[in-house]
Amino acid sequence: MERIRKIPTEKEMIELLRSGKVSLPPLAFRFLEDKPVAGGDRRFDALVEASWRQLTARFVVECKSLSTPKAFQDGLNLLKTSSLPKGCLPMLFLPFLSERQLKELEMEGISGIDLCGNGVVAAPSLFAVFRSGEKNRFSSSAPIKNIYRKNSSMVGRVFLVRSGYETVQEICAEINRRNMLVTLWNKRPMSLSTVSKSLKTLEEDLIVARKGTIRLLQPEKLLEKLNENYVSPEIKERVRLKVPEGGETIRELLWKQSQEKRVPFVAKGTSSVAQFAVMQRGDLLTVYCPRLEMLLDQLGASQTDRFPNLELLETEDETVYFDARKQGDVWWASPVQVYLELMAGDKRDQETAEQVKSYILKNFQTIQK
Question: How far apart are alpha carbons 97 and 117 in whole angstroms?
Answer without folding.
Answer: 9
